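Exam revision sheet. Question 4 asks you to relate a sequence to its structure. Input first:
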Amino acid sequence: MTVARRHPEWIKVRAPGRGEYADTRATVRDLDLHTVCEEAHCPNLAECWGHRTATFMLLGDVCTRNCGYCAVSHGRPQEVDAGEPLRVAEAVVRLGLRHVVVTSVDRDDLDDGGAGHFAATARAVKERVADCAVEVLTPDFKGSREALATVVDSPIDIFNHNTETVPRLYRRARPGAKYQRSLQLLDDAKRRRPEVLTKTGLMLGLGEEADEIRQVFADLEQVGCDILTLGQYLQPTRQHLPIERYLSPSEFADLRQEALTHGFRHVESGPLVRSSYHAWEHVSG
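Answer key, structure tokens:
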């Protein structure tokens, strides 16, 4: 195994600024909301908050799983905050959003995995801003079709669930998750409400091979996935999985072109791309 030691020159992030960034930060703090931008150490935080956008993370900041790539804390989670959906909706109003991305920690301790909370948030947002597109980025709900139905039947516009990596690396990167379960979730969501766009993302640089990536593209085509994001895995701390390889911007461009041959409506591909990066552009046109 070859482990990459230093970031290449194309891995550059913008430093936090003032103005819109400060307004976004103040809104998140004032409404006592969590964001995946902060909890997952997203490299695009300054840019996105500068555009008055943030990905809200429901159900606390402690996850019941311990994935090898993720910076979110794991352990015993907090009680469900029934007022959180209304505060997310208020944030949408204050920030003037017309596209909001809402995700959560894994909550395997809850009977529905948090599905009802996602649905309540979607309803709250639509009640305040009817023309705001609601994108949910959900856990796998341990494969519960009932939980999935709760989310998909709510007023969402985009259903996102990340496959994250190739099947061979699941045991090392995603203990507790199953590749086929994630594919099934995307398939079930599309079959249940065909008009809802389905979306998924892969992080690259964990040791996956080119033919394995191609197979994932083909598998996603089979379940009718509409939108794909491809980005470089960046190690949050030295305790997380190491980066085995940095893909160049040209490699990401090539992967985008190859993925598009599998019928995706949109493919966002680049070193710093994340699931919700420029999410509003993924569904335009």
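Marking note for examiners. The radius of gyration is 18 Å.
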